[in-house]
Design goal:
Layout: H1 9-51, E1 58-62, E2 69-74, H2 78-83, E3 86-89, H3 91-99, H4 110-114
Antiparallel strand pairs: 1-2, 1-3
């Protein structure tokens, strides 16, 4: 006796397969959206890095009053990055500051590289 109101085992398997395909399709679409979003972010980061101006070669660090020049740094000095009171200057301006008794940073030694030694 076969009750036609209940689906057969084969029909249930086909139904299960459709459900799995639908879930997999949805999951793949979600993954594709995540991938596209991450690729967009990476492209923005890459473009931002390309557009970023090059770091200055030389920096002068101003005192707390923002008027007196306290120290001369190389552009990549970690101490200058932490101070937050530095401004970029040209090579000649850095050399002139060192000649006018502004000390060079003891960590990055701009006086050595600029050839201005006491």
């Amino acid at each position: 006796m076969n009750d036609r109101s209940s689906p057969s085992r084969l029909e249930l398997l086909h139904f299960a397969r459709r459900v799995v395909v639908q879930q997999a399709t949805t999951a793949l679409a979600q993954l594709d959206r995540w991938i596209a979003e991450e690729e967009r972010r990476e492209e923005e980061r890459r473009r931002g890095e390309e557009m970023r101006p090059p770091p200055p070669e030389w920096l002068v660090q101003y005192g707390l009053n923002r008027r007196n020049v306290d120290v001369v740094h190389k552009g990549d000095c970690w101490v200058a990055a932490k101070s937050g009171r530095c401004r970029p200057v040209s090579r000649d301006q850095a050399r002139d500051a060192l000649r006018h008794q502004v000390p060079g940073c003891t960590h990055c030694r701009p006086d050595t590289e600029l050839g201005v030694l006491d």
